[in-house]
């Protein structure tokens, strides 16, 4: 048990709550800084959201997964990664409800966002294939781990190409919000913006490390199922930056940043498993995948596919003032939670 929270469930829960609040607050500050950097550097909201903001807001989650894997808690490490992807998809639904002019996927449609959604599907498929592949390792690392890194960075190169050399563009409508630079904070130097961004990222990493210690202690002291802890609790807590940055981006009018921060960030979150495989010293972490975790990969693939269709169809306004894709993602997440809570005993037996 972690010496930080040894012997006290109340202290562990309090520590968990404090870290979750801290992560949410830091994520709010990140959204503004990321939007300013996207404008000042000229890289655009899609790449800034997908690569830079997505990676930095994921620091707390990646630290938690790696720390759990290094401690031998493979199920917590993988559950946090896969649950985080699902939670962030749900957070995009929340961001959609905050934008009242039109369906968020309609207003923020871009080639880059669609490409990042496709990359996410590919990354999740590699994870699923890895769990059914032979358990070969070299120095304890499975071949799927370098493949995931190659797929991610290769995919991001294609995303950038789709921005600089687009072969088609979404039809512009009255509700479309084009990604255009807004120089609203030029008195703050570019170097200082990057320093602020990195400091906030470091603080998120520290919060994630402490959160993992608190989560492990809660699992031990409460007897809470490790799958529920990883998929529903730690994943949601470490994904709070994505929630607050998406809502903050929507309120700033940076709609492309809001969507790319989720889709591109989730593609990066798939690398949690690769980081965890390197940290895990008892063989391939992919072969610790249980039917419960495989089920959540399938849920995440389904949600990703629905969001891609939403970005392509671009429904202006659907039921309850959000698009069909937001409703579908919410339903899929609820189904996943119900199966996890009520069927975990039946589907969590390791392969």
List the secondary-structure elements in sequence, H or E: HHHHHHHHHHHHHH
Beta-strand residue fraction = under 5%
Integer-rounded radius of gyration: 19 Å
Query: What structural class results from the helix and strand content?
Result: mainly alpha
Overall CATH architecture: Up-down Bundle
Q: Whole-number average pLDDT?
A: 80
CATH topology: A middle domain of Talin 1
Termini distance? 27 Å
Number of DSSP E strands: 0
The largest sheet is:
none
Unreliable runs: 345-351
What top-tier CATH class fits best?
Mainly Alpha
**What is the helical fraction, as a range of percent?**
over 70%
Counted by DSSP, the helix tally is 14
3D architecture notes:
The protein is mostly helical. It has helices at 9-41, 45-57, 59-70, 74-98, 104-107, 111-132, 144-164, 190-222, 226-238, 240-252, 255-269, 271-279, 291-313, 324-347. It starts with 8 loop residues before the first helix and ends with a helix. It contains 14 helices and no strands. Helix 4 runs parallel beside helix 13 and helix 6 (111-132) runs parallel beside helix 11. The protein has one domain (3-158, 170-178, 188-347): NCX, central ion-binding region (A middle domain of Talin 1).
């Amino acid at each position: 048990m972690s010496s930080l929270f040894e012997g006290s469930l109340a202290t562990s829960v309090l520590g968990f709550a404090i870290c979750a609040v801290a992560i949410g607050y830091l994520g709010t500050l990140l959204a503004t800084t990321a939007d300013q950097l996207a404008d000042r550097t000229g890289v655009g909201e899609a790449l800034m959201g997908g690569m830079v903001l997505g990676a930095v807001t994921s620091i707390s989650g990646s630290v938690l997964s790696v720390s759990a894997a290094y401690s031998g808690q493979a199920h917590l490490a993988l559950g946090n990664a896969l649950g985080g992807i699902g939670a962030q998809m749900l957070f995009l639904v929340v961001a959609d409800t905050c934008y009242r002019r039109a369906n968020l996927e309609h207003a923020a449609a871009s080639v880059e966002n669609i490409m990042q959604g496709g990359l996410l599907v590919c990354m999740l498929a590699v994870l699923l294939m890895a769990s059914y592949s032979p358990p070969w390792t070299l120095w304890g690392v499975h071949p799927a781990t370098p493949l995931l890194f190659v797929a991610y960075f290769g995919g991001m190169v294609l995303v950038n190409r789709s921005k600089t050399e687009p072969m088609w563009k979404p039809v512009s409508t009255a509700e479309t919000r084009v990604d255009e630079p807004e120089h609203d904070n030029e008195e703050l130097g570019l170097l200082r913006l990057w320093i602020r961004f990195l400091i906030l990222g470091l603080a998120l990493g520290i919060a994630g490390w402490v959160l993992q210690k608190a989560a492990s202690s809660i699992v031990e002291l409460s007897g809470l199922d490790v799958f529920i802890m990883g998929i529903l609790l730690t994943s949601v807590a470490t994904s709070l930056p994505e929630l607050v940055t998406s809502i903050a981006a929507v309120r700033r009018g940076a709609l492309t940043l809001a969507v790319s921060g989720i889709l591109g960030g989730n593609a990066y979150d798939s690398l949690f498993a690769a980081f965890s495989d390197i940290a895990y010293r008892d063989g391939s972490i992919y072969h610790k995948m249980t039917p419960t975790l495989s089920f959540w990969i399938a849920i995440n693939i389904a949600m990703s596919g629905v969001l891609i269709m939403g970005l392509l169809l671009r429904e202006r306004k659907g039921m309850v003032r959000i698009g069909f894709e937001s409703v579908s993602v919410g339903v899929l997440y609820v189904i996943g939670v119900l199966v996890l809570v009520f069927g975990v005993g039946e589907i969590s037996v390791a392969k």
